[in-house]
Model the fold of this input.
Amino acid sequence: MKVFRGLPNDQARAPCALTIGNFDGVHRGHQALLARVRAAADSLGLEAAVMTFEPHPREYFARRSGDLSRAPARIANLRDKLEALENGGIDRVIVEHFNEHFAAMSPEEFTERVLVEGLHVKWLMVGEDFCYGARRAGNVAMLVEAGKRHGFHVETLPTVLEGEQRISSSAVRATLAAGDLDATGALLGHPYSISGHVIHGQKLGRTLGFPTLNLRVMHRPALQGIFVVQVHGLADGPLPAVASLGVRPTVEDAGRMLLEVHIFDYAQPCYGKLVRVEFLQKLRDEEKYVDLDTLTAAIHRDAEQARAWFAARDARRDAPAGCGAASRAGALTATDRI
Done:
């Protein structure tokens, strides 16, 4: 998959089937849209393309207003978004820098300069509520008319539902904020995870008896707290661990977001390695403690709970099929105690 920062140059402007959106999380609704774009591209002999934005437009406007609380929490970093788009069969992604100039484009200017001249769009799919141009003045009806004038076809994708719930990035953010990782997985179509390169930290965890690998989180994540996790990318299979995702209020006052992961019974160096942290169960919210001793005791409890979670999961996996209600109840009771 080719990735462009901004519109591609003349040599890379192959005619394409395009979809446009933020694609935060690339949930099942997004996946349905990507599958339709891929199918259209194949049938028309075009490249399948996505235009997305960095930063998120709502984040840009929140920063401009000076009120960052209006910016949406991020489900995924750009690396994870691009990987999910590639897995969806996309040939190229245009990561458009959302800035003052882009935000000021009229719908007509966006159509002519971006879609027609910049991307050579021949087929376009958007959501039913798609808006574009300055002050969101353009809508799907205007886009259909523009397509007739400029020679591209426009389709819309109906809302994708999970039961009666609309599958959306907002819905995914809500389940993550609530710590409901099962519901998050149902909306995404896979377990929730964050990837990143392991960086050097303050080495405080090592002095407390819980060495951690650290991943920098550049945006406000949609979930925070203490979690049971497993780590991919360091061994043949996932490694069991406990993790903290937050601002470390007991030991740091800068508001810097960090993902700290303590892998059980693992002592190999891993600085610089790319890992994926898969979130399995939320244990509690992040707290500020009066001193390091209190913090250390809390970490001990978190680690014990996480180990118990893995032990209960492994016991369920190892139990013979049809082992009876009593065994199943015992396994559930072990989980409920966590």
